[in-house]
Amino acid sequence: MKRLILAAAATAVLATAGLAEEMKMAVTTSFHNSGLAEVLLPEIKKDLDLDVQLLVVGTGQAIRLGEAGDVDAILVHSKKAEEAFLAGGNGTHRREIMYNDFVFIGPENDAAGIAEAEDAAGALQKIASAEAAFVSRGDDSGTHKKELSLWGTAGLSLETFGPWYRAVGAGMGAALNTASGMDAYIMSDRASWLNFGNKGGLALLFSGDPVLFNQYAYIPVNPEKHGHVKNGLAMELEAWLVSDKAAALINSYQINGEALFVFNAAP
Question: pLDDT of 2-14, one tens digit each?
Fold first, then answer.
């Protein structure tokens, strides 16, 4: 009997020896919709023998998952919310990884005329003035937070908006689908738009205002607050994300010849 138990134990050790380590990372729907994860995750597995399980949510929910210790790290894009997360002792530090930009999408005929706007605020003022259909993420994501701040910059208040403004409480892909179905305006991150397959009669109408800059940052969850989090693995992943290999993969990721992200992690 003892020999059988020892044999079984040895078999169990051999069976688990080949298993990759696992960690959980909350990421934004915009990052996931870009398709970049499908490029990076296999290389992370190959180089680190690490399976990164993604929880795909908006930035607000990603931060709440980090605060609860339900993930080991977060990859998000709302600097103000990230700094509040750190100030609350929920993360160890913030590391910028890559950026792209937000763009305004709308009907190809552009009835509101936002393509002629001088800046993002002007584009939103034109949409509001025309009361043109506009789809908002409405989900406390980084994109939603940015959209709300831009309406404020434009001197406009959501409380005064009529039924032309529709908050859908959904991720970037679902919100783009709604906009496509309604022939409505929407603000999207460039990567999600380029990877979106149901463009219908929509087109990219406005971009280039510096306020539309969209930085993604990586934050490991603080192990002093949540002792069970896998900080060692989170740090291994960070080292990989800021490596030359990651830089090459991120910078070379394109759709129809157009880059979706620019790597900008500091050495």
Answer: 444 444 444 444 3
